[in-house]
């Protein structure tokens, strides 16, 4: 079985990804405009969703929730609408796919990332966290797809005219991963079966996709893995990898 990953958009203005395996389709967050989601579903022949995973309550992840209220919603946050409350490091079956949620460190309560697996492939999704806890690095080792936040370049963030408390929030332990920390986490999780790296949640003001690629190639160089596909996800454009 093969997986297909469609990222509908990634960044502080909205996030949404649909992971498919066979006829199972799981949406992770719904912060991207409904017209783009509908167009992508039509383009890729997705006529239903088997689950919607809400990683945390920030609006760039939940804004279009009202359109998905008849989907089975998985979350850790009791204040979000849900059918299934998930716990960190437990295993859940969603129509033949396996999901393992894991706790992350972010300034919204109950923020989590997930690993999704079918019989042969897997994706590790880590975004909206100030750091990557070591059990998460272990869980993510050798995932086929590594979708990991590379939110900001520290100097570019400091150079923005954002108020200092906001900069401190983003830089802190409950903020977002900077390029170096994201790339280091990715380098630690790359294994023999890893094929694709997707850098996520790239800030439009405080980062530059070229910088992300530079840091990634520097951190991954010692691994000698010229076979890896590396992409930066975009706020305004969808990205699709893999085939079902
Ligand atoms: Zn967030």
Concise account of the structure shown:
By secondary structure, the chain is α/β, with parallel strands linked by helices. The protein has helices at residues 34-43, 59-62, 134-140, 154-159, 164-171, 179-189, 209-220; strands at residues 3-9, 16-21, 24-28, 51-54, 73-75, 84-85, 92-94, 97-103, 112-117, 122-126, 145-149, 196-200, 229-232, 239-242. The termini are close together.
State the strand order across the main sheet: 6-5-4-3-2-1-14
Strand share of the residues? 25-35%
Bound compounds: zinc ion
Structural classification: alpha/beta
Please, how many helices? 7
Provide the CATH architecture.
Answer: 4-Layer Sandwich
**Overall domain count:** 1
Total strands:
14
Mean pLDDT: 97
Can you give the helix content as a percent range? 10-25%
CATH class type:
Alpha Beta
Radius of gyration: 17 Å
What would the principal axes of the Cα set say about the shape? globular
Q: What distinguishing features does this structure have?
A:
244 residues; alpha/beta; Metallo-beta-lactamase, Chain A; seven-stranded mixed sheet; 14 strands; 27% strand; binds zinc ion
Write the layout of secondary structure elements.
Layout: E1 3-9, E2 16-21, E3 24-28, H1 34-43, E4 51-54, H2 59-62, E5 73-75, E6 84-85, E7 92-94, E8 97-103, E9 112-117, E10 122-126, H3 134-140, E11 145-149, H4 154-159, H5 164-171, H6 179-189, E12 196-200, H7 209-220, E13 229-232, E14 239-242
Parallel strand pairs: 3-4, 4-5, 5-6, 10-11, 11-12, 12-13
Antiparallel strand pairs: 1-2, 1-14, 2-3, 7-8, 8-9, 9-10
Bound molecules: zinc ion.
């Amino acid at each position: 079985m093969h997986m297909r990953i469609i990222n509908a958009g990634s960044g502080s203005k909205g996030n949404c990804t649909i992971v498919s395996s066979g006829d199972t389709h799981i949406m992770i967050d719904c912060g991207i405009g409904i017209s783009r989601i509908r167009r992508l579903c039509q383009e890729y022949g997705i006529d239903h969703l088997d689950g919607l995973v809400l990683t945390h309550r920030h609006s760039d992840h939940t804004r279009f929730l009202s359109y998905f209220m008849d989907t089975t919603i998985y979350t850790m946050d009791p204040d979000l609408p849900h059918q299934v409350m998930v716990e960190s490091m437990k295993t859940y079956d969603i129509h033949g796919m396996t999901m393992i949620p894991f706790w992350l460190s972010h300034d919204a309560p109950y923020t989590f990332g997930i690993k999704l697996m079918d019989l042969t492939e897997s994706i590790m999704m880590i975004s909206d966290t100030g750091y990557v806890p070591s059990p998460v690095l272990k869980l993510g080792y050798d995932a086929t797809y590594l979708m990991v936040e590379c939110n900001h370049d520290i100097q570019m963030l400091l150079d923005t005219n954002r108020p200092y408390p906001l900069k401190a929030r983003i830089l802190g332990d409950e903020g977002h991963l900077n390029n170096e920390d994201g790339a280091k986490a990715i380098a630690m999780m790359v294994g023999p079966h890893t094929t694709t790296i997707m850098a996520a949640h790239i800030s439009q003001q405080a980062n530059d996709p070229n910088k992300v690629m530079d840091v990634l190639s520097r951190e991954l160089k010692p691994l000698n893995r010229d076979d890896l596909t590396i992409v930066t996800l975009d706020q305004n454009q969808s990205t699709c990898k893999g085939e079902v």
